[in-house]
Amino acid sequence: MAKKTSQSKICNDVDETMIPEDCTTDHDENFGDSFDLAPKKNDKPSFKYQSVVRKRDERNKLDAQTCAQCEEYFSDLSPRKRAEKIRNVCRHRHVFAPPKSPEHFWEIGIPDTLECKRRGYIRDEEDFSEEELSRLRERRRRYRRRRSDDVEK
Ligand SMILES: [Zn+2]
């Protein structure tokens, strides 16, 4: 009841019976002229979000995920022991876990040629199949034909 009296101090013309019991938001002066708007009861968003969860017991309720470094660190344990360790120790706890970064996402700079070839960024002509090669040759032929047409004009 103390809450309702504090609300009625803010806006005198509001009928107290119109304010729901579980309403916690403070109302501004023009609340009285918008009675057709129902106050929001559920403030939880309908989409996935990132939030900070504090307090150890609150965090322990959340599921623990592992990052690549954690996976490597716990890799020598047996699967059962590993799962138990991750559940008790791991600090990656989210209400909604964000997607993991793609491989090499956080590497700075351009990798050397050998590494590029290994990852498949660069391909030698020997690596192409016969079908891909014929498609490439046709593309080159069309390009050269168009260039020679442009030069004649
Ligand atoms: Zn980790």
From TrEMBL:
Q: Where is this region: Disordered?
A: 128-153
User: Is the keyword Hydrolase in the record?
Assistant: no
Keywords per UniProt: DNA damage, Nucleus
Concerning Pfam families, the annotation shows: SAE2
InterPro entries associated with the record = Ctp1_C, RBBP8-like
Name the domain of life this protein comes from.
Eukaryota
| Compartments in which it is found | Nucleus
UniProt main location, coarse: nucleus
Tell me the ranges covered by the DNA endonuclease activator Ctp1 C-terminal domain, including all copies.
81-115
Q: Where is the composition biased (Basic residues)?
A: 137-146
One GO biological process this protein is involved in is: DNA repair
What is this protein's name?
DNA endonuclease activator Ctp1 C-terminal domain-containing protein
Q: Which organism is it from?
A: Ciona intestinalis (Transparent sea squirt)
